[in-house]
Design a protein that fits this description.
There is one protein chain. The chain is mainly α and 184 residues long. Helix content is 72%, strand content 2%. The chain has seven helices and two strands, in the order αββαααααα. The chain has a two-stranded antiparallel sheet with strand order 1-2. Helix 4 (87-106) runs antiparallel to helix 5. It is globular.
């Protein structure tokens, strides 16, 4: 990859982190864990940018939040958020992006692969990390952690995953045709 193309992809990764920060502010409040559009952003960016730059984008988003920039849900930020009850979801974001990006990089023109990768990443990985972290950080029972940390998202995360996969594939195709994005 040329230096110019690498720069374009780094800029795209930075823009992706900003998009996730914006989508994190679309929130439906719940008592412990808010329901946000972050999974949509993570899936979308990973589908469009692939495993390398999509994962970098999500990692950058998490790093910005960890150092205190208010990019997390409710305009929050800081390492304390990651150590809190919702930290597991944030920790799972980067691995989720890698999994989504892996599927879409391996099968770049496959909507099916994009949907499978997005469901695994945006639903299974994020909710699993969130559940385990919430259970231990909040000293809840498994059933209480599941009720608070998974059940409210059991329908919304898969919907966001499918939307991210389908929309992401279309955007990636259009950007590739326009020469804005390298073929992943």
């Amino acid at each position: 990859m040329s230096t110019s193309q690498h720069r374009k992809m780094l800029i795209a990764a930075a823009i992706g982190a900003a998009l996730i920060a914006i989508l994190a502010q679309i929130t439906i409040p719940f008592p412990i864990v808010p329901n946000t559009a972050q999974p949509l952003g993570i899936g979308l960016i990973a589908v469009i940018l692939g495993k390398r730059y999509g994962t970098l984008s999500v990692f950058l988003y998490c790093l910005l939040g960890a150092i205190g920039i208010p990019v997390f849900a409710g305009m929050s930020g800081g390492f304390g958020i990651i150590l809190g009850p919702t930290g597991g979801y944030i920790v799972g974001f980067t691995l989720a992006a890698y999994v989504v990006g892996f599927f879409t990089s391996r099968f770049p023109n496959s909507y099916t692969a994009a949907v499978i990768g997005a469901i695994l990443g945006v639903t299974v990985i994020i909710l699993s990390f969130g559940l385990i972290w919430l259970k231990f950080q909040s000293q809840m029972s498994w059933s209480a952690a599941f009720s608070a940390g998974v059940l409210p998202f059991i329908f919304t995360n898969p919907i966001q995953a499918v939307a991210a996969a389908l929309l992401g594939q279309r955007i990636k195709g259009a950007m590739s045709k326009a020469g804005v994005l390298r073929e992943i």
